[in-house]
Design a protein that fits this description.
It contains 12 helices and 12 strands. The chain has 348 residues and is of the alpha/beta class.
C-alpha cells in the first residue's frame, strides 16, 4: 500500500511540475497559408497539442505573403512568446525577426521548412525530405520494374517552389533514384527538362503546375505519344498535372506521384488518377515539436537525430527527422482512415 501511495505521489508531482512549466509560457506558431490543406492541419494539430500541454498559443497564417509573415513573427516576439515555431513562406525572408527573437532569448524552431541565412535558428523539425523523394523515385522504379523491363518509358518531372529549401531535397531524392535509368535511355524525358530550375513550381501553385503541364503536353504529347510517368513532388502540383492530363490523348494513364495525402488527391488515388502520395502524418510532427518545446522550457537537452545534414548557409541546425511512408489505393484505408487521420465520409 505504501508503495502504491508513493507511486501516486510521484505521478502527482510530475503533473504539478508539467503544469507549473506550462503556466505562463506562450508559444507562437507561424504557418505560411490556409490555401493548402496540409498547413491548416499542421496548425490545428500544433495548437491542439500545445493547449493540451497547458501552453498559451498564438497561431497565425500569413496568406503566402512574406511581409505579412515577417510582421506576424515580429508581433509574436513583442507579445512575449517564449518559443516560436515557424514554417516559412520563403526561407531567407525572416532574418530581421529572427535576429530580434535571438536578442530577447526566444528560441526558434523551424517547422518542416528550414529557415535560411540566420544563426538564430535553434532547431529544425521535419520529415526526412530527401527520403520523401526517394520514396517517390523507388515507387516509380518498382512499378515500371526498371531493373528488368526493356523500356523505354517516358517521364516528366514537376518539382516545388524554389524559395522552399525542402523542394530541392524532394526533387533530388527522386531524381537520384531515377537518374541511372535516364542516363541509360530506359527512361526518356521528351521535354528534356530535368534540371530543378526547369521543373520548379513557384509557391507550389496548382494552376502554375497545370499551365506548365499543358504546355509540355501540347509541345511533346499532342499526337498521343507515350507517357508513362509524371513525377510530382507534392499533391498541389500533382493536382495541376492531373487536371492537364484530362486532355491527354495517349493510351493508358501515367503513374503520378504526390505528397501530403490531401483529400482531393486521395480521392484521385481511389479513382485511379493519382498513383501514390507520400504520407507525412502531421500529428506525429506536431507531437515531436511539442516535446521539443517542453524540453527547451524545462532546460533539458532537446532530442534530435540529425546534426549534419541541414546547413542554412550560416549554421548547421540540429534537427529531428520523422520518417515518411507512402499511401496508394491499396493501403490508404489502413494509413488514413483506420488511424483516424480522415473519416470515410471525407473521402467520398
Amino acid at each position: 500500500m505504501k508503495r502504491i501511495l508513493s507511486v501516486l505521489l510521484c505521478l502527482l508531482m510530475v503533473c504539478v511540475s508539467i503544469s507549473a512549466l506550462a503556466e505562463g509560457e506562450k508559444v507562437g506558431v507561424s504557418m505560411p497559408t490556409k490555401d493548402l490543406q496540409r498547413w491548416v492541419q499542421d496548425g490545428e494539430n500544433m495548437e491542439k497539442e500545445l493547449k493540451a500541454a497547458g501552453f498559451e498559443v498564438e497561431l497565425q497564417y500569413a496568406s503566402n505573403d512574406v511581409p505579412t509573415q515577417l510582421n506576424q513573427v515580429e508581433t509574436m516576439v513583442d507579445n512575449g512568446c517564449n518559443v516560436i515555431v515557424i514554417s516559412a513562406i520563403e526561407g531567407s525572408s525572416l532574418g530581421t525577426a529572427l535576429a530580434k527573437a535571438k536578442e530577447k532569448g526566444i528560441k526558434i524552431i523551424a517547422y518542416d521548412r528550414l529557415l535560411m541565412d540566420s544563426d538564430a535558428v535553434d532547431f529544425y523539425a521535419t520529415f526526412d525530405n530527401y527520403m520523401v523523394g526517394t520514396v517517390q523515385g523507388n515507387y516509380v522504379k518498382e512499378k515500371l520494374d526498371l531493373d528488368n523491363a526493356a523500356g523505354p518509358f517516358y517521364i516528366e518531372f514537376t518539382a516545388g517552389d524554389p524559395g522552399d529549401n525542402n523542394a530541392g531535397y524532394f526533387f533530388n531524392g527522386a531524381f537520384d533514384v531515377l537518374k541511372p535509368y535516364i542516363e541509360s535511355g530506359k527512361l526518356v524525358v521528351r521535354s528534356g527538362q530535368t534540371a530543378f530550375e526547369q521543373v520548379a513550381t513557384p509557391t507550389w501553385k496548382t494552376d502554375v503546375a497545370q499551365k506548365r503541364a499543358d504546355d509540355i503536353l501540347t509541345a511533346y504529347y499532342a499526337n498521343g505519344e507515350q507517357l508513362d510517368v509524371w513525377l510530382c513532388s507534392n499533391d498541389s502540383t500533382a493536382l495541376g498535372v492531373t487536371n492537364a492530363l484530362d486532355n491527354y490523348t495517349g493510351e493508358g494513364w501515367p503513374i503520378i506521384t504526390g505528397q501530403d495525402c490531401d483529400i482531393a488527391n486521395t480521392k484521385n488515388m481511389i479513382a485511379g488518377k493519382q498513383s501514390m502520395s507520400v504520407f507525412k502524418d502531421t500529428r506525429t510532427l506536431a507531437a515531436r515539436v511539442v516535446t521539443m518545446i517542453k524540453q527547451i522550457l524545462a532546460g533539458e537537452e532537446v532530442e534530435v537525430n540529425d546534426t549534419e545534414t541541414y546547413n542554412n548557409n550560416v549554421i548547421t541546425v540540429p534537427s529531428y527527422l520523422c520518417e515518411p511512408v507512402f499511401a496508394d489505393a491499396n493501403n490508404y484505408k489502413e494509413l488514413l482512415i483506420d488511424s483516424g487521420y480522415y473519416t470515410e465520409d471525407q473521402l467520398q
